[in-house]
């Protein structure tokens, strides 16, 4: 089975994060190809069917704050028709999608991305406190993605006030030092439609990604998104 992992962007050690995520996913039998440009993701999907697309990058228009000015020329991105067609076609043919951490911030000028992953970051509404903080994660739904995942704590960015599709199933919540709880993982698999997705908003760095229960959540999310519970080989 084949996965394409899209990564790259600012304010994160994406090279090491992608390698860590790929290592975890490879234990499910996936052959993981890492790509760093939207054009490479499009080309990778054009070369042949992928069982899973993983978005672990941070690519958006970078508007609204001058702190992004030095990075916009290299990392700013407005979604083109080629990427829209590639990702919607992937989902329509039954391909899974896994959005990790900043994946739910990316592609902010394309509402269809939130349709595919069941929601995400909304500029002017969503936020996290500056820096990182301890986030205590616990599952809230019995599901193939959460099976056997015990409560865990990671030092992370805790995304708050995200917009989540009413049809998405919230799988886990995180509680930060202020005591506020927000969803950190959800799944979407609309009845009668092809393609499944899971979004996990934690995973700011390698230490977070590789925390054993976090890694188990990621691995099982990939398997469910690919439909392995429906008889597809992992």
Question: Could you please describe the fold and organization of this structure?
Answer:
With 234 residues, this protein is of the alpha/beta class. It has a single domain (2-230), classed as 3-Layer(aba) Sandwich (Rossmann fold), CATH 3.40.50. The chain has 7 helices and 11 strands. Strand 10 and strand 11 form a beta hairpin. Helix 2 crosses helix 4. The termini are close together.
Radius of gyration: 16 Å
Biggest sheet, strands in spatial order?
2-1-3-4-11-10-9-6-7
The count of strands amounts to 11
- Report the oligomer: single chain
Query: Class in CATH?
Result: Alpha Beta
CATH hierarchy: architecture: 3-Layer(aba) Sandwich
**SSE arrangement, N to C:** EHEHEHHEHEEEEEEEHH
Indicate the proportion of strand residues.
Answer: 15-25%
Rounded mean pLDDT score: 95
How many angstroms does the end-to-end distance come to? 7 Å
The CATH homologous superfamily is termed: Class I glutamine amidotransferase (GATase) domain
Number of helices: 7
